[in-house]
Structures are given as structure tokens and as C-alpha cells.
Specification:
Shape: elongated
Protein name: LRR receptor-like serine/threonine-protein kinase FLS2
Main location: membrane
Membrane topology: Single-pass type I membrane protein
CATH class of one domain: Alpha Beta
Low-confidence stretches: 13-22, 129-143, 793-827, 842-846, 969-990, 1005-1035
Keywords: Cell membrane, Glycoprotein, Kinase, Leucine-rich repeat, Membrane, Receptor, Repeat, Signal, Transferase, Transmembrane, Transmembrane helix
Radius of gyration: 40 Å
Distance between the termini: 143 Å
Pfam families: LRR_1 (PF00560), LRR_14 (PF23598), LRR_8 (PF13855), LRRNT_2 (PF08263)
CATH superfamily of one domain: Ribonuclease Inhibitor
Strand content: 15-25%
CATH architecture of one domain: Alpha-Beta Horseshoe
Largest sheet: 34 strands, mixed
Mean pLDDT: 86
């Protein structure tokens, strides 16, 4: 049988099988893409993916094929794809070389079967934009970001041909899989901006071809693995913003090809290794925000190609090495926030290419070197927060390209150089908090590109605001506060249309507010407080639609508050206090829905509180004190449930305190003192559980102290004095109000005894129960009041001030954020105390007032000896009672006592000798008792020469009484006279040299130091101005 040859049939058969296979493969790829498209939330984003449009996927959007028709590239960045990767069958795409799905809306985990892409060389699933993105793509994709979750699948290590891997900008977690070390051909690895944790795997050192490694913005822990030095081809290394530890490994300097190194924000410790010089190709080095130590290694100058160097916030110390100026290519140098010492090296001029120089927040001293003017390319110069002195060198005017100049918070003195007007490109100028004097130069008006100008807190900066400042039409921020400027506000200020913040407070400006200020449509902040401005309140101020902060306090503005102010809808801060304003509060102010602070105190305003103020739901701070308001408090005030501070003191309000005040559950401070309120204290006040300070003194309130007040457990100050309150002192004051520091119940009709529970108030520093009908004995346990034992000096950490803290608003510091919020705010409390026979209001020194006043009652029995344990007492007044027995022998233990009044009692016995140990005693009254014997002498008692302080004690004798004691001898008198004569001679002999030294020690400094002389006389002028204002207001 003849054999039939099969060769002629084999080739066509193989061709047919291959075509069939390719057809099947192509169909599989098409089906895989269409299935994934259908799984997306918005399939229309891939509208071209349809067999109706084309029979082959090679023409579809984002798809590229090889000559055989197989898909080799799938590139769909910024395509608004919304879905997961689990709908994509990676095994159906065996020829895929490049996959780019970055900057979409993908979520879920990375499927482990992505490892089926065995030919893949580039994988980009990044969540955001990268270096190659154009400005157009940036703005068109701001809302696009992938959000892939879960761990990086270890199967990714099977992609053996992978050269580029980008998974950045997602929410991937867990450790970096060690299998990533199998990607032997990888050149770029970016896992930044995820939530990866754990250590950096040592296997990463196996990626011998790696050129770029970015692991920044994760939660990686532990040290930098020393194996990293094996990455010999590495050019870019970024490990910033992690929680790494340990030192910078010296092996890292073996990366000879490294051009960019960023280890910032990584908690690294130890010194900068001197081997740094081995990175000869390094162009960018950032080690900022670490816990490094030691000096800057002088070897750093060997990095000849270095262009950017950031060593800020690294605790480095010592001088700036002069060698650093040999980095001839350096463009950016940041050594801020360290402990660098010494002068700025004059060799700085050698950095000819330098564009940014930041040496701020160090301890640099000496003058600013004039050579700095030779840095012709410099654009940013920040030398703030150092100890630099001397004048600003005029050579600084040569920096023609300078855009930012900050010399603030130094001790720079002298005049502002006229040459500063040559900095034509300057955008930010900050010379604040220095010792600059003289006028603001007119040349500053040449800086027409200037956007921010801060000359504040130069206390001897004098003269008027130059009219040329109006040429700064690009200026948005102007701060001239806390200087010594005078004259008027120039009317030309109306030309500064871009101005958003104007702060010229705490100067000596006078005249009226120019009407042109209303022509500044972009103003958001106006602070012109603490000046001498006069005239009527300008009506146009309500035209500012963007204004959120207005502070015109402490001037002499007159007239009424314009109702147009209610149209400033964004206003959050309104402070018109300490002026001469009159008339009522405009009802339109109730429209200011965003208002957080309103201070109209210390004016001459009158009328009633408009009920419309109850609409101010955002109000936190309301101060209407020290005016002539009258009428009743409107019940609508209870609608301001977020109010924290309410002060209506020193007005003419009458009627009952409205029960609705109990609805203001956020109150921490309530002051209704010195009015004409009557009726009972409302029980609803017990609902104010956040209340820390309550002042209802000097009214005509009746009834008992309400039981509900025990719910106010945060109270620190309670002042109910000068009313008509009767009943007993509640025992629960000492049990429930454990934080009390100030308790005043004086001048009421309270009866009964002093409850023992008051001794439990360990923080109490002032107890005033004077002028009531209290009877019984003084409890011994009052000697256990802890704060009075330690006093304000030894217990300073507890008694530093009576101030209260709130978490969200800024009331005394007016540089708030746009919404009115800021850091914590503090307000100082005040209290009225009978001090040295006169009534004083203590505010700033309230923390020093440690005392007990039980005078004007019917207390009996002996003075408890335990009271002498209260060594911190500053005053003790037990006068006008029925006390008997002797003065405690240990009264001398009250070493801080300045006032002691035991008069008008039934005390007997002798005055104890220990009373002469009270070296601070300034006021003493023991009159109208039954004391006997010799008056002790010595120390402070010798200065108390008024005999009336001992009158009414017929059996007392000795100085300062004219009655001599029976055993006095003439020789003692003569000896005393002789000694007094010697003392007078020595006194006059020492007074002469003492006067000369003291006079020239003070006035000599003023004579030779012009800046201090100006500051001193400015202080004297300010004191005179303040007394003048007080005198004028009292008239």
C-alpha cells in the first residue's frame, strides 16, 4: 500500500489551528473587557467599548494591540472609572505589557490573580496625579482618586518582568510583602501615600536595578534596613513621613548614584554621619523634622552638586560651618528651627545661585552681614526669631529679585533703610517685633507688588503713617499695631482696594476715621483699637459684605452705633468697648447670625437690651457692662444657648432675673453685679452646670441661696455679696462646690453658724462672710484650707490666676480665623474686696488675694489657734464680733500677712511677741478690746506709728502710745536716743552715694540708649493718656 505524505496537509492545518487559537484568544480578551465595563457604576465612561462600533478592541479608547491583534496596553488614567478590579479577568489578557488605571474612582482590594499578567512591565494603579501630569490634567481631575484597600497581594512578586510599579495615593494597609524583593527588573517603585505599616523589608535590597524608591507618607516602623545600600543604581530615595527610628545608617552613603534623598518627618536620631560627602551626585537633601543631634558636619561642603538642603527642625546645634558657603550650586538652604549659634558667616555671598535662605528660629547673634546684598538671585530671605542686632544693612536693597523678607522677632534697631524701597518685586515684608525706631520711610510706597506688610511691635517706631502707603494697591495684609505711630489715618487708604486685613491698633493715632475706609470692599478684619480716634462712628462701616472682625475699642469715638452695621452679615467679632458711644443698641444687630463676640462695654449706651439679640444663636461672648442700660433683661436672652460669657454689670437694670437664663447651658461666666435686680435668685440658674464664675453682688436680691445652685459643681468664683439674702449658709457649698476659690456672701442677712463643711474647700483662697448675722464660734477646721496654707507664692502653679479656658473661641486675641474660631481664650475675673479700710476691685492681681473676712457678725469664743496654720494669708479681718480669749501666741506664723484687724471684740491678755515677726504687715487694728501689757516692738511694728490702732485698750502701754510702761528707765530712753542719732548719721551718709548710683544707673542708660529712651517716654505718655481717659470719663 502506497503511503500518503502528510506534509502538504500539516502546514495548512497548523495555520488553521493557530488562527483558530488567535481568534479564540481575541474573543476572550474582548469578552474580558466588556465584562469589566459592565461591572462599573458608570459604563458610559467607556462608550467606545462596543462591538457595534468596531469588531476589534484595538480601536477602543485606551486600548493598544500588537501586530497580531493581542492587547498589549491598557491605558485609562483620569477616565472617571468607578468600580473594582475584581470584574477584570487578568488571565484573559496574557499579552498585556502596560496597565495604567491611575487617578480614577477605583476601590476595593487588588486581586491576587493580577499575577497572571506575566508579561507586564508597567503597573500603575496610583490614586492621584504624578510628575508627568500637565496643568490641564491637574485641574480636570481634582475630584478623582483611587481608593484601593487591603494589603498588597504577595502574588505581585510573580510579575517577574515588572519595571515600574505605582500603587501610591490609595488606602492600602498592612506590611510591604517581602515577595516584592523578587521583582528583579524593577526600576521604579512608588508605594507612597498609603497606610502601610510594619518594617521596611530587608528583601528590598535585592532590587538591584531600582532607580526610584518612594515609600513616603505611610506608617512604616523600625530602622532603615542596612541592606538598602545594595541598591547601587538608586537615584531617588524618599522615606519621609513615616514612624521610623534609630540613626541614619552609615551604609546609606554608599549609594553613590543618589541624586535625591528625603528622610524628613521620620523620627530619626543621632548625628548626621560625616560620610555624607560620599554622595557626590546628590542634588537634593532633606533631613528636616527629625530628632537629630550634634553640629552640621563640615564635610557637607564636599557635596558639590547640591542644589537643595533642608535641615530644619532637627535640633542641630553649634555654629553654621563656614564651609557650607562652598556649595556653589546651592539654590535652597533651610536651617530653621534649630539651636544654631554665633553670627551669620559673611562668606554667604559665595552662594551666588541661592534663591531661598531660611535661618529662622535659631540663636544666631550679631548683625546681619552686609555681604548678604550680593546674593543677586535671592527670592526668599527669612532670618526671623533669632538674636540678631544692629541695623538693617542698606545693601539689602540690592536684592532685586527678592519676593519675601522676614527679619521679625530679633533685636534689630535703627531706622528702616530707605534702600528697602528698591525691592521692586517684594511681596511679603515682615520686620515686626524688633527695636526699629524713627518713621516709616516714604520709599515703602514703591513696593507696588507688596501683598503683606508687618511692622508691628516696634514700640519706638514713630511718626505718621506715610501717605505713599496708598500706592500699595496689591496689599492684602497691613499690620502696624503696637508701635508709637501718631498723626491721622491717611485718607488715601481708600486706594488700597485689595486690603483684607487692617490692624493699626495700640498706637497714638488721632482724628476721625477717614470716610474713604468704607471704599475698601474686600476688608475682612479691621482692628484700630487703643488709639485716640475721635468723632462720630462712621455710618458707612456697614457696607463691608466680607467683614468678619471689627475692633474699634479703647478710642474716643462718639455718637450712636449705626443700624447699618447690622448689614455686615459675615461679622463674627464686634468690639466697640471703651469709647464714648451713646444711644441704644440698634435692633438690626440681631441680624448678625454669625456673630460670636459682642463687646459694647465701657460706653455711655442707654435704653433696654433689644429682644432681637436673642436671635444671635452663634454668640459666645456678650459684654454690655459699665453703661447706662436700664429696664429688664429680655426673656429672649435665654435663646442664646451657646453663650459662654455674659457680663451686664454696672448698669441700671431692674426687675427679676429672668428664669430663661437657665437655658443658657453653655455659660461659664455670668456677671449681673451692681444693678438694681430684685426678687429671688431663680432656681433655674442651677441648670448652668458649666458655670465657673457667678457674680450677683450689689443688687437687692432676697430669699435664700437656692438649693439648685449645688448643681453648679464647676464654680470657681461665687459672689452674692451686698444683697438682702437671708437664711443659713448652706452646708453643701463645701461638699458640692469643691473647686471654689472665691466665696463672697458679705453684707447680707445670713444667720446661723459657719458650716464645718467649708473647711473641705481645698482651693479656697478668699472667704468673705462679713457683715451678716452669723453667730457661734469660728470652726477650728478652717485651719485646713489648703490653698490658704500654701498661699499664692508657694503654690504658684495652682494660684497663678483666676482665669478660665474655653475650647473654641478667641476673645481677647483678635487675630482669629475667618470663621471666628481660634485657640483657647482666657478672661480675667475680678472681685470687690475691702482692703486696708477701702474697697478695691482686684482683677489682674486677684490670685494674690488670699484672705478671710468674717467681720461685722456675732461670732464668739476664742480665735482658733489652727488659723495660724494658714501661712499664705494676706489679710485676716475678724473685727466687729464677740470674740474673747487671747490673741493666739503663734500669730507670727502668718508670714505673708499684710492686713490684720481684730478690733471691736472682747480679746484679753497681752499682745504676743510673735506679732513682730510679721514683716509684711502694713495695716494693724487691735483697738477696742481688753488687751493689756507692753506693745511688742521691732521689725515692721516700728513703722505702725498711729496710736489709734491700739486705742480702747486702757491697759496697753509702750510705743506708739504716749503711756509708758512702769518699768521703762530713762537710761534706756537716752541710749535709744543716742542709737537713733547714730542711725540717722549713717542714713544720711549712705543716702548720698546711693542716690548718685541709682540716678545715673537708670537715667544714664536712657541717656546713652536712644531706643530705650523713646520706649520709656512712650510708656510715660501712655500712662498719662490712660489716666486722662479715666478722668474724662469720670467727668
Amino acid at each position: 500500500m502506497k503511503t500518503v505524505p502528510i506534509q502538504p496537509f500539516l502546514v495548512p492545518l497548523l495555520i488553521f489551528i493557530s488562527l483558530a487559537f488567535l481568534e479564540a484568544s481575541a474573543q476572550s480578551e474582548v469578552q474580558a473587557l466588556l465584562n469589566w465595563k459592565s461591572s462599573l457604576f458608570q459604563p458610559d465612561a467607556l462608550s467606545s467599548w462596543s462591538l457595534a462600533n468596531s469588531t476589534t478592541p484595538c480601536t477602543w479608547f485606551g486600548v493598544r494591540c500588537n501586530s497580531a491583534g493581542s492587547i498589549v496596553q491598557l491605558s485609562l488614567p483620569i477616565a472617571k472609572l468607578n468600580g473594582t478590579l475584581h470584574g477584570l479577568d487578568f488571565a484573559s489578557l496574557p499579552s498585556l505589557i502596560k496597565l495604567n488605571l491611575s487617578t480614577n474612582l477605583l476601590y476595593g482590594s487588588i486581586p491576587s490573580n493580577i499575577s497572571a499578567l506575566s508579561k507586564l512591565t508597567s503597573l500603575d494603579l496610583g490614586g492621584g496625579l504624578f510628575a508627568y501630569a500637565s496643568p490641564y490634567t491637574f485641574y480636570s481631575s481634582l475630584s478623582l482618586s483611587n481608593n484601593l484597600l487591603g494589603p498588597i497581594p504577595p502574588e505581585i512578586g510573580r510579575l517577574a518582568k515588572l519595571q515600574q510599579l505605582n500603587l501610591s495615593g490609595n488606602s492600602l494597609g498592612g506590611p510591604i510583602p517581602s515577595q516584592i524583593g523578587r521583582l528583579a527588573k524593577l526600576q521604579q517603585l512608588d508605594l507612597s501615600k498609603n497606610s502601610l505599616d510594619g518594617p521596611i523589608p530587608s528583601q528590598i535590597g535585592r532590587l538591584a536595578d531600582l532607580q526610584q524608591l518612594d515609600l513616603s507618607y505611610n506608617n512604616l516602623l523600625g530602622p532603615i534596613p542596612p541592606e538598602i545600600w545594595r541598591l547601587a543604581d538608586l537615584q531617588q530615595l524618599d522615606l519621609s513621613f513615616n514612624n521610623l527610628s534609630g540613626p541614619i545608617p552609615p551604609e546609606i552613603w554608599r549609594l553613590a548614584d543618589l541624586q535625591q534623598l528625603d528622610l524628613s518627618y521620620t523620627n530619626l536620631l543621632g548625628p548626621i554621619p560625616p560620610e555624607i560627602w560620599r554622595l557626590a551626585d546628590l542634588q537634593q537633601l532633606d533631613l528636616s523634622f527629625n530628632n537629630l543631634s550634634g553640629p552640621i558636619p563640615p564635610e557637607i561642603w564636599r557635596l558639590a552638586d547640591l542644589q537643595q538642603l533642608d535641615l530644619s527642625y532637627t535640633n542641630l546645634l553649634g555654629p553654621i560651618p563656614p564651609e557650607i558657603w562652598r556649595l556653589a550650586d546651592l539654590q535652597q538652604l533651610d536651617l530653621s528651627y534649630n539651636n544654631l549659634l554665633g553670627p551669620i558667616p559673611p562668606e554667604i555671598w559665595r552662594l551666588a545661585d541661592l534663591e531661598q535662605l531660611d535661618l529662622s528660629s535659631n540663636n544666631l547673634s550679631g548683625p546681619i552681614p552686609p555681604e548678604i546684598g550680593r546674593l543677586a538671585d535671592l527670592q526668599q530671605l527669612d532670618l526671623s526669631e533669632n538674636s540678631l542686632n544692629g541695623p538693617i544693612p542698606p545693601e539689602i536693597g540690592r536684592l532685586a529679585k527678592l519676593q519675601q523678607l522676614d527679619l521679625s522677632k530679633n533685636s534689630i534697631d535703627g531706622l528702616i533703610p530707605l534702600e528697602i524701597g528698591r525691592l521692586a518685586k517684594l511681596q511679603q515684608l515682615d520686620l515686626s517685633e524688633n527695636l526699629l525706631d524713627g518713621p516709616i520711610p516714604r520709599e515703602i510706597g514703591r513696593l507696588t507688588d507688596l501683598e503683606q506688610l508687618d511692622l508691628s511691635k516696634n514700640f519706638v517706631l514713630t511718626g505718621p503713617i506715610p501717605q505713599t502707603i496708598a500706592n500699595l494697591t496689591q496689599l492684602t495684609y497691613l499690620a502696624l499695631f503696637s508701635s508709637n505711630l501718631n498723626g491721622t489715618i491717611p485718607v488715601e487708604i481708600g486706594n488700597m482696594k485689595a486690603l483684607t486685613s487692617l490692624d493699626i491698633s495700640s498706637n497714638r493715632l488721632e482724628g476721625e476715621l477717614p470716610h474713604t475706609i468704607a471704599q475698601l470692599p474686600n476688608l475682612e478684619v479691621i482692628s484700630i483699637s487703643y488709639n485716640n480716634l475721635s468723632g462720630r462712628f462712621p455710618l458707612q462701616l456697614g457696607n463691608w459684605s466680607l467683614l468678619y472682625q471689627l475692633n474699634l475699642s479703647s478710642n474716643q469715638l462718639s455718637g450712636s452705633i449705626p443700624s447699618e452695621l447690622g448689614d455686615a452679615a459675615r461679622l463674627t467679632t464686634l468690639d466697640l468697648s471703651a469709647n464714648k458711644l451713646n444711644g441704644p443698641i440698634p435692633t438690626k444687630l440681631g441680624k448678625l447670625k454669625n456673630l460670636a463676640l459682642m463687646d459694647l462695654s465701657r460706653n455711655d449706651l442707654s435704653g433696654e437690651i433689644p429682644y432681637q439679640l436673642g436671635n444671635l444663636a452663634s454668640l459666645d461672648f456678650l459684654n454690655l457692662a459699665n453703661n447706662n442700660f436700664s429696664g429688664m433683661i429680655p426673656r429672649s436672652i435665654g435663646s442664646m444657648i451657646g453663650l459662654k460669657y455674659l457680663n451686664l454689670a454696672n448698669n441700671k437694670f431692674f426687675g427679676m432675673i429672668p428664669r430663661s437664663i437657665g437655658s443658657m447651658i453653655g455659660l461659664t461666666y455670668l456677671n449681673l453685679a451692681n444693678n438694681k435686680f430684685s426678687g429671688m435668685i431663680p432656681r433655674s440658674i442651677g441648670s448652668l452646670t458649666s458655670l465657673q464664675s457667678l457674680h450677683l453682688n450689689n443688687n437687692s436680691l432676697i430669699g435664700e441661696i437656692p438649693l439648685s445652685l449645688k448643681n453648679c459643681t464647676q464654680l470657681v468664683v461665687l459672689d452674692l455679696g451686698e444683697n438682702k439674702i437671708h437664711g443659713y449658709i448652706p452646708y453643701w457649698l463645701g461638699e458640692r462646690l469643691s473647686l471654689l476659690r472665691i466665696l463672697r456672701l458679705s453684707s447680707n442677712a445670713l444667720g446661723g453658724s459657719i458650716p464645718l463643711q467649708l473647711s473641705h474647700l481645698s482651693s479656697l483662697q478668699l472667704l468673705d462672710l462679713a457683715h451678716n448675722n452669723i453667730s457661734g464660734s469660728i470652726p477650728q477646721d478652717l485651719g485646713n484650707l489648703t490653698a490658704m496654707v500654701y498661699g499664692a507664692q508657694e503654690k504658684e502653679e495652682q494660684m497663678i490666676s483666676i482665669s478660665y479656658k474655653s475650647s473654641s473661641e478667641c476673645f481677647r486675641v483678635y487675630r482669629c480665623t475667618r470663621d471666628g474660631s481660634g485657640g483657647p481664650f482666657y478672661y480675667s475675673d475680678s472681685v470687690s474686696v475691702t482692703w486696708k479700710a477701702r474697697e478695691f476691685v482686684f482683677q489682674k492681681t486677684l490670685s494674690l488675694m488670699v484672705g478671710i473676712d468674717l467681720s461685722g457678725n456675732s461670732l464668739c469664743d476664742e480665735i482658733p489657734t489652727d488659723l495660724t496654720n494658714l501661712s499664705g494669708l494676706v489679710f485676716l479681718n475678724l473685727s466687729g464680733n464677740l470674740l474673747d480669749g487671747s490673741i493666739p501666741n503663734m500669730i507670727g506664723k502668718l508670714k505673708n500677712l499684710e492686713v490684720l484687724d481684730l478690733s471691736v471684740n472682747h480679746l484679753t491678755g497681752t499682745i504676743p511677741q510673735s506679732i513682730s515677726s510679721l514683716t509684711f504687715l502694713d495695716v494693724l487694728n487691735l483697738s477696742n478690746n481688753h488687751l493689756r501689757g507692753r506693745i511688742p516692738s521691732g521689725h515692721q511694728l516700728q513703722t505702725l506709728v498711729d496710736p489709734s490702732i491700739y486705742s480702747g485698750n486702757d491697759e496697753l502701754c509702750g510705743f506708739p502710745l504716749t503711756k509708758n510702761c512702769s518699768n521703762d528707765q530713762a537710761s534706756v530712753v537716752r541710749l535709744s536716743t543716742h542709737d537713733d542719732g547714730d542711725e540717722k548719721i549713717w542714713f544720711y551718709l549712705s543716702m548720698g552715694p546711693g542716690f548718685v548710683v541709682g540716678f545715673w544707673g537708670f537715667f544714664g542708660i536712657l541717656f546713652f540708649k536712644r531706643s530705650l529712651r523713646l520706649a520709656y517716654f512712650r510708656c510715660i505718655d501712655d500712662i498719662y493718656d490712660r489716666f486722662s481717659r479715666i478722668s474724662m470719663r469720670s467727668m
